[in-house]
Amino acid sequence: MEDVARAAKLTTVLAERLTAQLLAGRPARDPIEVTRRLLAVQGQDPRGARLAVRARSSDLTAADVDRALNEGSLLITWVNRGTLHLLASEDYPWLHALTTPPLFTGSARRLAGEGLTPGAVERGVKAIERALASAGPLTRAQLREHIDAAAVRTEGQVLGELLMLASLQGIIVRGPVIDSQHAYVLVRDWLGVSPPVDRDRALAELARRYLAGHGPAEDRDLARWAGLPLRDARAALSSIARELGERPDGLVELAGSAGPPQPPPRACSARSIRCCSGGARARSCSEFRLAAGSGGGLSRSGAARAGARHLQLLLAERHRVPGVQLASAAGLALAVHQGRGLRQKSLGLAAAVDQAGELEQLSEPDRLPADGHLSNHCANVASGLRGRVRRAHG
């Protein structure tokens, strides 16, 4: 009965988060709606950012995202946790001001580790600014030439670190797409000059927007997602306390911010699992920790452990928890896809047989039509589980 209660809680939280993230219910109409809802979309992989928009919308293509970038409605830059994110241009001033200060120390350490002196770093950043002022927008390759001309080396990780530092300093962002390459622009040219940001108001807006697009959640979820100290996350939530609704599971949500959660999709893709679970940790449902670590997606070892345990739990009650077992199987297969594989030692033989059957169902062509490679991984994991059972029985 305890497992049944846990599974029911997992189902509720999953449905609420899928709905908040536009992975269930009415799809968004344009890329800007998706980005505003999520506040910041992981953008390290340009294709991944576009797929995140597609998964939450209908009839949109990569060209629609590129059009919004070219028009200046969207941009990509380093914020939250020091990774590239897609965000609405209107949210850039306050989110950048709030989340980038903790990132300077790491930036300086990495540049020093690459052998650059403070003077060389300053020359490199100034070369970026001068080049964009006179000839921007410019691609990464074009900016490399200008930095080389300033007698600052760019091999290894140096170029990326200099571009990141210029972004952290509020000088540049990634703006339009030129010949399939994302180009950099000066913030002052692309967005204009913004007024000073009130930090308390920015913290309140962060809490409000995070819960609208990722809730229900807790303070640690917000801190991890934004890359801020826990004290800042708690201050942010406290500042909108009157807007929050109480929950018996200890999580918080915006009061009356949305209707009832929609049921999970029939078959969730790996990217849906990654987006819905990233940065979210249900304190009252400790098994549902598909997001381990501080990143915005699944860490590899965390995904393997959590995927195995979560799928075990749901398979035990698979007839009573409809619509979730395939999502867990997809999350588990994602762990394999990310290169760490399934920690089979933690699974009993009976569970291995059940999981093999579940993954074999997921590998059928009509179950994940847009993820043929993922289906193949599901089939491979299933085969490995069957082999483990055969070897155990001698």
* Rough outline: globular
Distance between the termini: 34 Å
Helical stretch count? 18
Mean pLDDT figure: 75
**Low-pLDDT segments:** 266-353, 362-375
User: What is the H/E string?
Assistant: HHEHHEEHHHEHHEEHHHHEEHHHHH
Structural class: mainly alpha
Helix content: 40-55%
Write the layout of secondary structure elements.
Layout: H1 2-20, H2 31-38, E1 41-42, H3 46-55, H4 62-71, E2 74-79, E3 83-88, H5 92-99, H6 104-113, H7 118-135, E4 138-139, H8 140-149, H9 158-168, E5 172-178, E6 181-186, H10 187-190, H11 199-214, H12 219-226, H13 230-239, E7 244-245, E8 253-254, H14 270-277, H15 300-316, H16 325-337, H17 349-362, H18 372-392
Highlighted features:
globular; mainly alpha; 3-stranded antiparallel sheet; 3 domains; 394 residues; single chain; 55% helix; Arc Repressor Mutant, subunit A
